[in-house]
Design a protein that fits this description.
Shape: rod-shaped
Distance between the termini: 51 Å
Strand content: 15-25%
Structural class: alpha/beta
Low-confidence stretches: 1-6, 646-660
Mean pLDDT: 85
């Protein structure tokens, strides 16, 4: 049993000092949190992203975006113009109409990959406009070798290494559009289908090609130098790296370690102005919507597999909306990013949560019992609230899930530890209580609130009272340590005998004891008599010192047995209760035990117990009557019996009659 307890980690923790045990549980919770986060990483990342986006959706900015206008090739446009792809001449008319309305720049979220009649007309319209940028698509997730069109307009100066995604597959515009600036539209699709990041540049065959929004920026400022550099994020609270455009050095675009910029969803979808392409072709629109703005053209019709993506606001949204969001973030210089030291910062938040939980666990029982579960619920909410506040106020995507996972785990572990500690302490207290009281009584006391009322019940019992003779004289002549050793020996042996015979010791009183059997029948009386006989065989003299004073009377044992009705329970004020055994049967058995010295019989049995023994247990061996006696303090004579095997004590037992 001891070996099993040594192998039990909970028992080992409970043996530690409380502070060390709590620290061990907090460390174990950290290990479990790391394992849980790593084992369920895809699901964890999705949960973190979706709830983390509440920093945008709860406080969405409804201010109308007047710098960018979306031109959507939607179902209504297809129904009137015809199926997609439209003739190049129709697209050229759309480009001219937008340019004449005053648009400063046109961004086509469309890859004109296949050569078609009228490519020259469309290319001329694009070249004649105030500015135009076309889309090209480096293929990141596709395995087959695809190289369609001519990919153009790379960023010079970029080192295509670990900081940027790389591929050698692409869909690009036909060679007829080689002179028109281009940018890629290859976002990162998450495992749940959402788009949250896009590479700032993608390396294709050793050259870095910018995103559509960056190409638009360079085109708008009429930059002659399309080159950029990657620089360090600059500290723990900065991003992993920045992309700096040489033509516009004040613009530093924060990127993660893989070269991706995070898409901001701070603006409400209703903030973006959308015009169907058919309205522009028909002239049914307000030209002021394009005056000195950027126009973003994209296909949104479901019937032709338009670019439809899920966003934090809706499960279905046009892909051109994402490009609008990236453009708006660049114009505002407010691109959200994750700090390079996000792991360290989240670790510090977890440590702060651990410190708070540790302090709660060291508090009073109520704080520990109530505070830890409440903190386990509130701390994840606080982590999410902090993330939302940083995202909304500073544009910093810190993340929140790891400390939010760790906090309830740590709280739960500490609750289990405190529960185990309380359980161990309760068991220890209960064990100590049962060493002073019977198990049933100890359990009743342990699980009941204290009361100032009498809490007792009437029961029919068999009682045994045993007392050491001449112990007072022995204690007078010997040190108290020796007296205690003799009593300990006697009480230990007597308790073992009584319990083996089905009884229990109710109370050790002075140099005697009283034991009870919970029934009133011949079997209980026989067991009590058996216990009395075995107790007479205890060699108490073995415990006496060799140098006992001359003339000291030897120790002997007197035992009385009787059956009857008693009252057993607790009395006294709530702050100091006493467990008692009351009734005339208790008084009678004490008086019978006292008469063992006068009658020179070590065992005497009262009339009630004797009748049960004679009728049911000892038919061939009757108890011997000792006559009727008026017991001290009582008014009714009682008939006493002695076991025949006992007889009168021989002279060598050294008993003397002691009166009084």
């Amino acid at each position: 049993m001891a070996e099993m307890q040594n192998r039990n980690p909970v028992a080992a923790l409970l043996r530690l000092p409380p502070a060390w045990a709590r620290l061990a549980m907090l460390a174990l919770a950290a290990v479990l949190a790391v394992a849980l986060y790593a084992g369920l990483r895809p699901a964890m990342v999705t949960l973190e992203e979706r709830l983390g986006a509440l920093g945008w959706t709860l406080y969405a900015d409804p201010t109308e975006e007047q710098r960018i206008t979306l031109v959507t090739i939607d179902e209504a446009s297809l129904a009137e113009v015809g199926p997609w792809p439209w003739p190049r001449e129709t697209l050229a008319r759309l480009v001219t109409a937008i340019d004449e309305a005053g648009a400063q720049l046109q961004l086509h979220d469309i890859v004109y990959a296949e050569p078609r009649p009228g490519d020259g007309v469309l290319a001329e319209a694009l070249a004649a406009s105030r500015g135009a940028v076309l889309a090209q698509l480096p293929l990141l997730p596709i395995d087959q070798q695809v190289r369609t069109g001519v990919i153009t307009h790379p960023l010079a100066g970029l080192q295509c290494g670990a900081g940027l995604p790389q591929t050698d597959r692409y869909l690009a515009a036909d060679a007829a559009f080689a002179g028109i600036p281009k940018g890629h539209i290859a976002p990162i699709v998450s495992s749940d289908g959402s788009i949250r990041k896009t590479p700032a540049a993608i390396c294709v065959q050793g050259e870095g090609y910018p995103a559509l929004a960056l190409s638009a920026w360079l085109t708008a400022v009429q930059a002659d130098n399309w080159s950029a550099t990657l620089i360090d994020g600059g500290g723990l609270f900065g991003p992993d790296q920045y992309l700096r455009l040489v033509a516009y050095p004040d613009l530093e675009i924060p990127l993660d370690s893989e070269g991706n910029l995070r898409i901001s969803y701070a603006s409400d979808p209703s903030a973006f102005r959308k015009i169907p392409a058919i309205d522009i072709l028909n002239g049914d629109f307000d030209p002021a919507w394009f005056d000195n703005t950027w126009a973003l053209i994209g296909v949104t019709a479901f019937s032709v597999g338009g670019d439809i993506v899920p966003t934090p606001y809706a499960g279905v949204a046009p892909g051109v909306e994402l490009q609008t969001r990236i453009l708006a973030s660049l114009l505002d210089g407010a691109i959200p990013y994750t700090p390079a030291a996000d792991g360290l910062l989240l670790g510090l938040l977890s440590a702060a949560a651990a410190a708070a939980l540790f302090l709660l666990a060291t508090g009073r029982n109520r704080w520990s019992a109530v505070g830890l579960p409440v903190a386990g619920v509130l701390l994840p909410v606080a982590m999410l609230a902090l993330h939302i506040q940083l995202l909304q106020g500073q544009g910093v995507w810190l993340g929140w899930l790891f400390p939010a996972v760790y906090s309830p785990l740590a709280a739960g572990m500490l609750v289990l530890l405190e529960y185990g500690r309380v359980r161990a302490e309760r068991d220890r207290v209960f064990g100590n209580l049962t060493s002073y009281l019977p198990n049933e009584i100890a359990r009743e006391i342990a699980y009941s609130l204290p009361s100032s009322n009498i809490d007792a019940r009437r029961a029919e019992m068999t009682l045994l009272c045993a007392d050491l003779r001449n112990f007072a004289a022995f204690g007078e002549s010997r040190p108290p340590e020796e007296s205690a050793a003799v009593l300990h020996f006697f009480f230990t042996r007597a308790t073992r005998i009584i319990e083996a015979c089905g009884g229990r010791v109710h109370e050790f009183k002075g140099d005697g004891l009283i034991a009870v059997w919970d029934t009133w029948n011949g079997n209980a009386a026989a067991r009590a008599l058996q216990a009395a006989r075995e107790m007479q065989d205890i060699e108490i003299a073995e415990m006496l010192p060799e140098d006992s004073p001359e003339g000291l009377e030897p120790l002997a044992l007197g035992i009385g047995i009787e059956q009857g009705s008693v009252l057993i329970g607790s009395v006294g004020p709530a702050h100091r209760r006493g467990h008692v055994l009351l009734g005339d049967t208790v008084t009678i058995v004490f008086r019978i035990q006292e008469l063992t010295a006068d009658l020179a019989h070590p065992i005497l049995v009262g009339g009630n117990a004797a009748r049960k023994l004679n009728e049911e247990q000892l038919k061939d061996e009757k108890l011997e009557s000792q006559g009727h006696f008026l017991l001290s303090g009582l008014r009714t004579p009682h008939h006493l019996f002695a076991p025949p095997s006992t007889g009168k004590l021989p002279e060598d037992r050294g008993l003397k009659l002691i009166h009084g």
